[in-house]
């Protein structure tokens, strides 16, 4: 959204979102989609890519997120010789079992998951939110040597601020959020509210770069507002997690080159050998070209030494791998207070019958 923009949302109160709880085991015609969830650790993506390469699987596109010691990925792959989807159930079972072994950490309190996704229109980012939500990445877990980067080294103004209160007069729960503005922030928030079985009846979004404010009037699908402190706390944690999952933590590296079988495995191996930790990644191929984006830190979650990046760029090729952005050097957001109820007397002035979208720019 542009600087100084705002948006108002209204919803038909009779609308209730569907909630997808399960995944199937059928590949599409073009590729096989596999979903992964497990404990994050340095070198995990490299190990996954190495297994897929050994099993003659070519990664066509993928998206990988890490958050709060958890990792999730949605990977579209093909057979590396035919270029088509993998359908042999015995081979698929072997792929699933070997990847599950890679994901299963020795001290993992949760079960690693590897599933084959059915064909459908579910957005990849939406699926990643659902996977990580089901994996309870919003639970705050203290693990030695992990998960401290976000709280220790980032300015507190960079962290999301979420409040949840009940508007007794109108029988709604009001969710107010303030966070650093970024692409798909509204999408991430609304998806999470929907997957948690809440209906958004009204909303206001305002951006005053570099921050974004969002306010939503919600009820549970049963028509009631939030009724307990535990539910309120859980919603706050889940929305904070939804904001943080796609945050661009670390240095952004972009890879552009001719695609080939095993390319992703080779690149992630080089990252691992140079002690880089991949926090988030977007993998894509089109017309024989690979365009991949990686967000990396060192193994402890701190900024990467520029000398290491220079060495990696020379090894891979300066025209192939380039530094796009370093979020660790981004300017800090100005300190502001959480937005108040933006609607004011909105309820007195408008009908609530239809869904409407209004946007203006200053």
From TrEMBL:
Residues making up the signal peptide according to the UniProt record: none
Classification via Gene3D superfamilies: 3.30.70.260
Keyword Metal-binding appears in the UniProt entry: no
Residue ranges annotated for the ACT domain, each copy included: 33-119, 252-330
UniProt keyword Ubl conjugation present: no
Keywords, in A-Z order: Repeat
Role of this protein: Binds amino acids.
Name the UniProt record assigns to this protein: ACT domain-containing protein ACR
Organism: Stylosanthes scabra
Gene from which this protein is expressed: ACR6_1
């Amino acid at each position: 959204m542009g600087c100084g923009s705002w948006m108002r949302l209204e919803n038909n109160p009779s609308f209730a979102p569907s909630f997808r709880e399960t995944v199937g085991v059928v590949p599409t015609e073009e590729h096989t989609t596999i979903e992964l969830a497990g404990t994050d650790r340095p070198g995990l993506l490299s190990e996954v890519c190495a297994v897929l390469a050994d099993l003659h699987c070519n990664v066509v596109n993928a998206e990988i997120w890490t958050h709060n010691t958890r990792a999730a990925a949605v990977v579209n792959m093909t057979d590396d010789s035919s270029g088509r989807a993998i359908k042999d159930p015995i081979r698929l079972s072997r792929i699933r079992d070997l990847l599950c072994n890679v994901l299963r950490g020795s001290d993992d309190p949760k079960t690693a998951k590897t599933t084959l996704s059915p064909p459908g229109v579910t957005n990849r980012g939406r699926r990643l939110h659902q996977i990580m939500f089901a994996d309870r990445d919003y639970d705050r877990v203290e693990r030695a040597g992990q998960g401290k980067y976000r709280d220790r080294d980032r300015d507190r103004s960079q962290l999301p601020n979420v409040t949840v209160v009940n508007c007794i007069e109108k029988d709604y729960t009001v969710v107010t959020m303030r966070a650093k503005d970024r692409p798909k922030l509204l999408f991430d928030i609304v998806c999470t509210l929907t997957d948690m079985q809440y209906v958004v009846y009204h909303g206001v979004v305002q951006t005053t770069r570099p921050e974004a404010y969002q306010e939503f009037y919600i009820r549970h699908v049963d028509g009631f507002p939030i009724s307990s402190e535990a539910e309120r706390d859980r919603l706050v944690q889940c929305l904070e997690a939804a904001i943080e999952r796609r945050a661009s933590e670390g240095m952004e590296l972009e890879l552009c080159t001719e695609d080939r079988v095993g390319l992703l495995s080779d690149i992630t191996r080089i990252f691992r050998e140079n002690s880089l930790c991949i926090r988030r990644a977007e993998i894509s191929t089109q017309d024989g070209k690979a365009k991949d984006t990686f967000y990396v830190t060192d193994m402890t979650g701190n900024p990467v030494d520029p000398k290491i990046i220079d060495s990696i760029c020379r090894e891979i090729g300066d025209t192939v791998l380039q530094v796009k952005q370093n979020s660790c050097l981004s300017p800090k957001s100005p300190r502001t207070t959480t937005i108040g109820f933006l609607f004011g007397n909105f309820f007195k002035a408008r009908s609530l019958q239809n869904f409407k979208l209004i946007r203006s720019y200053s």
